[in-house]
Amino acid sequence: MQDAPGGVAHGPATAARVPGASLARSGALGQDGKVTPEPDSASVDATPSEQPGPPSSELREEYARLAEEVRAHRIAYYQDAAPTISDAEFDTLFRRLEELEALHPELVSNDSPTQEVGGEVSSAFTPVDHLARMYSLEDVFSLDELKVWLDRACAGVEQRNPGAAIEWLTELKIDGLAVNLLYRNGELVRAATRGDGVTGEDITHNVLTIASIPRHLAGSGHPEEVEIRGEVFFPTKEFAQLNERMVAAGKAPFANPRNAAAGSLRQKDPAMTAERPLDMYVHGIGARTGLAAETQSQTYDLLKEWGLPTSPYYRVLADQGEVIDFIEHYGEHRHDLLHEIDGIVVKVDSFALQRALGHTSRVPRWSVAYKYPPEEVNTRLLDILVNVGRTGRVTPFGLMEPVKVAGSTVGMATLHNQEVVKAKGVMIGDIVVLRKAGDVIPEIVGPVMALRDPDRVREFVMPTECPSCGTALQPAKEGDVDIRCPNARSCPSQLRERVFHLAGRGAFDIEALGWEAAIALTQPAEPEVPPITTEADIFDLTPEKLADVRIERDKKVKGVVTGRELVPYFYSKGTAKKPSEPSATTRKLFTELEKAKAQPLWRVLVALSIRHVGPTASRALATAFGSMERIRSSSEEELANVDGVGPTIAAALEEWFAEDWHREIVDRWAAAGVRMEDEVDESTPRTLEGLTVVVTGSLERFNRDEAKEAIITRGGKAAGSVSKNTSYVVAGENAGTKLEKAEVLGVPVLDEEGFIALLEHGPVPVAEVDGGAADGDTSEKSEDTEVAEELDRGAGADLDSKAGVRT
Ligand SMILES: [Zn+2]
User: What is the mean pLDDT of the chain?
Assistant: First the structure.
């Protein structure tokens, strides 16, 4: 038997978060995971499609009818060997079922014919009839629908048992495989799959390998005969490990834990099943003889006493509000559980009331399944486009028919690089599985092979030239998977991304400069020469320079898109009476640009889009050097020595400042009035001018940042590592290797008192400070005696050996 359904493979997990990835038209994922529209690809528009809401009742009926029909034909074909329709007719029915599921994935139930592993009822298992039919449940897809159902159940009870109070048993709808266990006098005699609800497959040998299912029931008073229903599941935690093993063994991984459970349970060899960590929760009974229980919940207590695994998650609730709370709670925590769930089941707890309500031909009237919005949906992959990011990285992304998944509408998802596209096996035009679990970034999982139409699909080819500027693309260095547009300076896409970035909240924080404004500034439809061709221009903008800027937008007549039109972006349209003038947002843009000039140095550094230089490194650099000039004139070694900087960032800084056009950005920003150094308190004497100080270990009166701050405000450099250029090392408690290195290099070492004296008086007057650490403990003193020896060897010869200085 096949172990996994073909076609759907797992891609690499994505860690980045995308807030509201919900653009209906073409767009792209930035390197920071932000979703932004993508003008390079604006020629390819997604076909606007209807937003699929919950499926209509007609559609649900058609689906249920079709599923029944397909099941019946399968049984006729495989079990009775007496097919009533041709294979082609069967294929048509099956395909329609798949189409409905593709359109409305929330319809897919565990027992859908499409969900059976290998796509067929296997002849490897003996068919067995259930003693009592295993009913499907009625599905509801919204709280409104649930409310209608609950009210109807209440009305039904009121009609038959006036005055009876209903208690609701609510439990998790496990995304697993329904199994029916038959016990006679406490002995497990049979286990079967659900099948079509009447006939299932005998999987007793495989079920016996599941540790939590008892062969003999515990306790006593077992009924003569009882069918116990439950759900076999693959624990979420073990699922990832299983797939790793599958891939390592060269097999296709399972698409989800449910398929893994089904695949594991329907192994021909029970030894194979035994290797899988399957588990089960029981949640109901079918046929019974001699069972003493009045309610569903009492039955669970009984089942638990008998040693059967019952779910720890069910509750008996008195009112509808609590039921809705339960649904909302697990909606938020559905990934914190031992197993996957796809909804909540609500049952009338009392058996008497269950009997009073009865069944329709298909479903019980006393139980309903509320289904959460699907986290995995199918949609068509319309195209694969590429986005050129801020650093020139070219990233393919899928443009899809917008679809609702896990509560938000998704129209695109990153595909990372061409290797990922290849690994996923997706082709343009495929119906693809799109997944978005919780807050996670949407991911194209893979194609639905069964729905691939060879005439409608084509392979994605990674472009060899930049779609934005036409420059030949190349890897940054040999062997890199990622390819880049090397035209950093004038590639319009890269400039647009940098402008968008420099206005961001972590940089200059220019609120009126959003994504569309970045496009209007760098790639407007008119005029031919954009208002800015380098970010050096940004602070030299004037309202006059923006007067003629037009961008292309949807033209709408009474809310309906009728085409595209050019509209002024920064100015009002202008009428005969009222001439065109800067819009309110444009006026705000200039106020904000003015305000941005006073931002602290670290934000200016972030705004420069230097590789690897994010907010953390920028803060470290600003703290250590205090001004752009000092950063620019520092050697790579000095930069690398700063805590939180290191060699990679130092090299990136060196490389960046080596470019003329980069230095021009800094110079022109400075000329426009951007503050290039952090304000220093003028009242603080610059006692440490020209000195580099390393603080190590913990001090009593300063934390690490305060110590650095104290050094920098006095004109010194606060470095992170000791080198021969270090002027002093300040060693607190538990100073480690830095202190040792200082000793090796002969760098003077100060204790906290010495540090305070240095801050106050600078290097020379230290000699005049008396006392200092002299009141320290004996170890301190014994170290002081070493100072003399060190000084004899000439290290720190310009220093006195008095208190506060030790080496
Ligand atoms: Zn380019």
Answer: 82
Taking the centre of ligand 1 as the mean of its atom positions, its distance from the CA of residue 486, in whole angstroms, is 7
Measured in degrees and rounded to the nearest 5, phi and psi for residue 397 equal -140, 150
d(CA 437, CA 406): 7
Ligand 1 centroid–CA 389 distance in Å is 9
**Does 91 carry a binding-site annotation?**
yes
Query: What are the residues facing 37 on neighbouring strands?
Result: 27
Who contacts 690 (Cβ-Cβ below 8 Å, separation ≥6)?
Answer: 715, 716
**Structural tokens at position 229:** 């229903």
Any known ligand binding at 371? yes
Q: Based on the residue annotation, tell me whether 173 is a catalytic residue of this protein.
A: yes
The answer to whether 67 is annotated as binding is no
What is the spatial distance between Cα 229 and Cα 435, in angstroms, rounded to a whole number?
30
Cα of 496 vs centre of ligand 1, distance in Å, is 11
Amino acid code (one letter) for 677: E
Residues measured by CB to lie within 5 Å of ligand 1, the ion: 466, 468-469, 471, 485, 487, 491
d(CA 636, CA 652): 9
Does 788 show up as a binding residue in the annotation?
Answer: no
| Alpha carbon of 390 to ligand 1 centroid (Å) | 10
* Strand partners for 183: 188, 226
> In this structure, what are the phi and psi dihedrals at residue 711, rounded to the nearest 5 degrees?
-70, -45
| The pLDDT of residue 671 is above 80 | yes
What domains can be seen in the chain, in order of their start residue? 27-51+375-484 (2.40.50.140), 142-371 (3.30.470.30), 492-596 (no CATH), 601-671 (1.10.150.20), 692-806 (3.40.50.10190)
Rounded to 5°, angle at Cα 146 from 144 and 150: 120
Mean pLDDT throughout 277-287? 92
Instruction: Tell me the CA–centroid distance for residue 445 and ligand 1, in Å.
Output: 29
237-274 tens-digit pLDDT: 888 888 888 878 888 777 778 888 888 888 888 888 88
Q: Which of 34, 173, 738, 802 is catalytic?
A: 173
